[in-house]
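(Fold this chain)
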Amino acid sequence: MIAGIAVVAGALQHAVLPGGLWSNSSRANATIEVASLPTVAVDEARSMRDAGTATIVDARPANLSTTLPAGVISIPIGLSQDAAFVRAKLDGVPLDRTLLVHCGDARCGQSRVVAAAIRRLGWTDVRVIRGEP
């Protein structure tokens, strides 16, 4: 019965998120993908942002990212699996642009989930900021 519930839940999630990033076939690799994301130290992330070589992505919930500095893109964890939403937020950002994802502090795992979602859509240089930016 539990296996049946998991299958139904997976199907519902995929149905709720058309074009969603978590298809049943990709779920098995999600943990490995999230764990293998490259990271960058806070100081290096600031240097890259200041030099104009990277864009910061804020993975915090929408209510916490209402006043973002210019150039920061908000992709809240709750919407990160909606492929159309993520593509719209990153519209015009080249696929090879360095994207540095943060979620507020070193214990937060939201940035890894959002970064993995972005990578699945084709952006090739997506890193997670270690620590609080």
